[in-house]
Structure prediction request, 469 residues.
Amino acid sequence: MAKSKKQKSRTKAASKKVVKLKSKKLAAKANGLPKPSSKPYGKDGKALTGVRILDFTHVQSGPTCTQLLGYMGADVIKVERPGVGDITRTQLRDVKGQDSLYFTMLNGNKRSITIDSKHPQGKRVLDALIKTCDVLVENFAPGALDRMGLTWEHIHKLNPRMIVASVKGFGPGPYEDCKVYENVAQCAGGSASTTGFREGPPLVTGAQIGDSGTGLHLAWGIVCALYQRMRTGRGQKVLCAMQDGVLNLARVKLRDQQRLKVGPLSEYSQFGEGVPFGKAVPRAGNDSGGGQPGWILKCKGWESDPDAYIYFITQAPVWGEICDLIGKPQWKTDPDYATPPARLPKLKQIFATIEEWTMTKTKFEVMDICNKVDIPVGPILSMKEIAEEKSLRDTGTVVEVDHPGRGKYLTVGNPVKMSDSITEVERSPLLGEHTDEILKDVLGFKAAEIAEVKNSGALSAPKKEEKAA
Ligand code: COA
Prediction:
């Protein structure tokens, strides 16, 4: 039966309603997310595409953070003091007159603008940048940002969506006004007191857990704040104190501190050696922290090569395989060796016996042999070996970049690999390389305005005569 005009329009309205309901349901299911992209993976921008960072960082902790954000696709605008720049540009220089590796390896994927933040015209440019950026990242000494006039209130008034992220040495408390560098943080965060050999002094580690570690924490905080801002529409302060960042990485040692109250730490070799524990977590040398005894053992060539060593873990499930390899099959059933508790008091002697075997092989031979039977071992790789390791080049973890001033250099690429956000590592910028570009393209300044700011001296180093005066 043919439908009347009225019926037809009713049916149309009803089906429209169904479609609307369906798409509403789908939207609810998708949690408000857009339809999945149909572009090939890696071809739909990067994780932080569209995020603009006002990078007020220097030295290591802050630059590590913003470089990671740059690797993820953020537009990082590094503000540097005219004529001087980030102090690391000239520190530990290896090529005369050129930006050091200290700087270039921490400031890839960024643009550089020079601004005197204390000059009235400089302040004007900064205010304009604050209005257009999503995140301000800084790691000045406590109070320095406020002294520039960039208080939270000022920033928030200009741009309520701005996230202001800071690295400081200490959080609020007795030390909050202190200037802090890497090793200070390693000491204050509990790392140094728990690193080294029992009979020796506290040790700092080569890994920059105070600086780079805190930068990494801050980057995580920033990304979380960006996510929250999608819901609240407003920015917030993000603070990571270096002491807190180090402590977070040393949290298993605070675990051990609490375990000490109920008895000695049986996985520390001093337990097996019958050395009493004190009131605080001791240094554990090369003991493995995970409850499976481990130690660093010499390999073939150790007499001349300081890195001919291997980390060897005597994991309980592969004890039988270890005994077979080192020519001690009787230890598999000997009650003095067969169980982990029986082995604890003899670890020194057991590792000495394993070492007699590892010393007959190179660290890579030990690695090959042990991995075949699931014994966890790790070669001690020198930085030379890492720099030359093909697999690290293939994955983009170690990257060679070309620099107009200094030529080719190696840097560490993005340690996090994402299937839909592919990192392209770019060289670090020259001092003020993008000043004009940023004024024009980011801030939309006209030629006359650019000239006015430039002529004011806010973007250039003070002239020698002026300095002397
Ligand atoms: N224009 C004008 N002045 C600028 C500027 C610019 N573009 N950039 C920086 N400055 C000024 C600052 O305003 C500050 O001046 P003020 O002291 O008169 O206020 C001055 O430069 C020095 O900044 P500061 O941060 O104090 O540098 P520093 O070299 O004395 O100290 C640290 C370095 C790292 C110890 C200190 O910044 C700090 O403790 N930071 C926090 C913790 C941290 O990140 N430590 C690890 C670093 S890897």
Remarks:
- The first strand starts at residue 52 and ends at 56.
- The longest helix spans residues 5-29.
